[in-house]
Every structure is written in structure tokens, then in C-alpha cells.
Design brief:
This protein has 9 helices and 9 strands. It has 307 residues and is of the alpha+beta class. The N and C termini lie far apart (62 Å).
Length: 307
Amino acid sequence: MTSLGWTYEHLSEVIPILTRNSSSPTSAADLNPVIKQLLTDCPSSSIFGIGGHSVLLAITDDIIAKVSLKPGGRHVSHEQTIFSLLDRRAPCPHIVQTFLRRPDITFMQLLANGTLHERMAMAKNTSRPILRWMQQLADAVACVESLGYAHGDINPRNLLFDDHDQLKLVDFDHALKIGDDLDVGYEPYVRSSRIGQPGGDYGVAGPATEQFALGSTFWYMTRGTELYDELDGPEQVDRLMDGQFPATDPQNPIDNIIIDCWLGKFPSIADLSRRIQEVATFDENYQARKKKCEHYYQLLERPEPVS
């Protein structure tokens, strides 16, 4: 994502407007004093980005500080709980790395190479290693699942790239235990529950909701536009609730994964990850053999030597 490059003064001016529709509107007087202190004590720092409950401060060219907009903000604290749980298991290379966590502030890896949303907006000849992205994302979500949690807000804006063009899952503010009510998200990465169905606005958090979000993200990776982007809001919501999906190619293994995600056919995200690995291995072998065949055919096209 591109840095905002804002000053504290500008943040103070715009914060009431930016958060007026948030669950926790913030005025300039409400701002966490840690934000101003960091910007003052670190002369080269600047405001990199802003969310509904936190602000990102670029401290150096490879470190960012995520600071709660208000002192004692529960969203940053909750995310820190998730990172603490992740610390207890082998590191997942496709989840953003944190360096230090203290009340109201998390120092983490600065990922300045854009979101998936920004990548897909670039020219079509820009590198798009889709199977690799799918594998990395599924591995990250499976890692969270192994803790008994769901990320709960998988979408292209929460997927960033590092300096080596590796995908990283970020923003665990809304992560929730598997089995909890899911009330956060936006179409087409969630679908509304019908009246009387169990769970929150978008169902019960777990493999079904996570893989639905993944299926829509994989669709976006392969098509370059979001699922039902051409429809207005109510019609999009109705089609998703009714389980009506666009036609996919049954001969395309990636399309088969997408439709299986939408239909919730994978018992776990770990199972989905293994399926992607199988497809990726097959594709790698196929491409290698195809390249050999092209080489052999080129030999046939060489002109006969003149005797």
C-alpha cells in the first residue's frame, strides 16, 4: 500500500471525518498521545495508513508501528492476543511478522509493496503467480485455524506483499474463535445469513465462512474483478444468499477449487491447502513437460543442413 505521508496536524484535522461512521468515532482530542510522541521522537517517521481503530506509522523503511487511535483500544489489544497465540507455534511465513507488542502499540514488518487490490489494478502483464498466492494465503489461514480461530475479514485489502513478492495476511483485529457469530465483512467475501439461521449477520465463523472468503478472493485473483462486481448491492446480496454463482470451467482445476470453496466442501482450510498443493505440483510438472515438448518441436523446425 502507498504511504499517506501525513503529518500529525493533518491527521487531527481529518480524523473526525474518517471515523464518523466507525463503531468508535474519534475526535482530535481523543487521539492517543502515543501517536504524536512517536512522530516527534522519530523524526523520519510519518503516517503510513489509517483504519477504523488504529493508525500505521512508518518508523523506518522496514518497521511500522500500529497504534490504537484511542488509548486502551480493544482492537489492537485483541490483535496482540492473536499474535501471542501465533508465537506459540512454528512461524508462518505468510503472516505479517511482529517485533514488539506493548499496550496500544505493535511494532511490525513494514510491507510497502501494495495490497492484492492494488496489484490487480495494475496492467495485466504485471506478474500474477496465482497458484503461489493461493497456496500462501491458504497456508496462512490454515495456521490461524490451527489455533481454533478464524481470521474473519479475509479480503484483497488485507493481503500485502513483501520485498520478495511473497503474500502476507494482515489485520487480525476481527479474528474470532471458530463457532462464534460472524458479524464483520463485506460482500462478496461474506454472504448474509437468512432470518432464523444460526450465527451472526454472516453466519458462524469457521471453515465454511473462511473458505467462502477465500473462494471469492481466488476468483478476484483469476478474473481481475470482484465476484458480481457488475451488480448493484441488493442483487449481489440476494445471489450470494441464494448460492447462485457464475459459471466456472469444470476442466480448470483452479475454478474447481473456487466453486468448492463457495459450496463449503472442504472440512478444513488445511484440507483446502493440501488440494491447492496437489494442483500446484501437477501444474509445475505439466509446465516443465510442455517446455520440453516446445524445445523438441523447435528442433524439427530447424532447416536441414545444406550438403
